[in-house]
Design brief:
290 residues, Rossmann fold, two-stranded antiparallel sheet
Length: 290
């Protein structure tokens, strides 16, 4: 459901561990950036606001372009950074404000010690939006692992989130896919405290459970889920069962919305083609209205 070249599951661990490529507690949900993080001046959109903001003992870097409400906030995949959201700034900063940021340990944001929880990342985002004086409402556009953080944030701040767009994003059901692989002996058992990491970002695997709990608290807002058509799985993986679990996860998400929509996209997990992404962001903005 959420993997570009290894698994439909968030836990690429599964396949790689079975081949001895990485330990079973390590995860990669999105390719690492092919270039170093770009400075603010290199943004393809005119940056109206850029800087580092204290979120409580450490600082996060954010760039915002455009004006108008609601504000689009892009949440990158694990091991990614804000530059993956620049296309959204290009497409929509003429209509609304579009903000992209680096989570802790990524891009131009500060490094923090230890293994993070989903609540840590969601709290950081909330503090960042306050510190940068970016008021709600927000449309959260989440790629890959960012989907879990988007759900946790939306569950904690249901009145602030006016819409969500998931870009082949990770959902709580990914943990069910991983358990299926454990049951088939394709990966080692996974504990909630196991690290979940890529390219400097490290979270507890319990982030799935946090996102599942948050589902019950999100508001009825327009939601789009774009599902990529291209994925690969290791020999012996129960692909149809994995796909069925993934679809149930999407269905569960979309039942939370009176304006939920799933879009099948002909392309890889990352990056998704810009046109269908822009179409769905535009749909959500239109439903929210001025």
């Amino acid at each position: 459901m959420t993997m570009a070249s290894v698994l439909i599951s968030l836990l690429v661990t599964a396949c790689q561990a079975s081949s001895g490529a990485v330990p079973s507690s390590s995860v990669a949900t999105q390719p690492s950036p092919s270039v170093a993080p770009l400075p603010a001046s290199a943004s393809p959109a005119e940056t109206a606001q850029a800087g580092k903001y204290d979120v409580g003992g450490h600082s996060l870097y954010m760039e915002c372009a455009g004006a108008g409400s609601p504000t689009i906030v892009f949440l990158h995949g694990i091991g990614g950074d804000r530059t993956h959201g620049y296309a959204l700034q290009k497409a929509f900063s003429g209509r609304v404000r579009v903000c992209v940021y680096d989570r802790s340990n990524m891009g131009l944001s500060d490094r923090v010690e230890g293994v993070l929880t989903g609540a840590d990342a969601a709290n950081d985002l909330g503090a960042l939006l306050v510190a940068a004086d970016i008021p709600p409402p927000y449309v959260l556009v989440a790629g890959s692992f960012g989907g879990l953080i988007a759900l946790i944030y939306a569950g904690a701040h249901p009145r602030d989130v006016a819409g969500m767009v998931f870009l082949d994003a990770s959902l709580p059901s990914d943990a069910e896919v991983d358990q299926l692989l454990v049951d088939r002996g394709l990966i080692d058992p996974i504990k909630p405290t196991d690290p979940y990491a890529n390219n400097g970002e490290t979270f507890r695997y319990s982030v799935h459970g946090e996102a599942r709990a948050a589902l019950n608290a999100i508001s009825d807002v327009p939601i789009s889920y774009l599902r990529a058509s291209i994925f690969e799985a290791p020999p012996g993986a129960p692909i149809k069962e994995m796909q069925a679990i993934g679809q149930r996860g999407i269905d569960t998400l979309l039942t939370r919305s009176s304006h939920g929509k799933q879009v099948e996209v002909d392309g890889p997990h990352f990056p998704l083609p810009e046109q269908p992404v822009n179409d769905e962001v535009r749909r959500v903005l239109d439903l929210i209205g001025p």
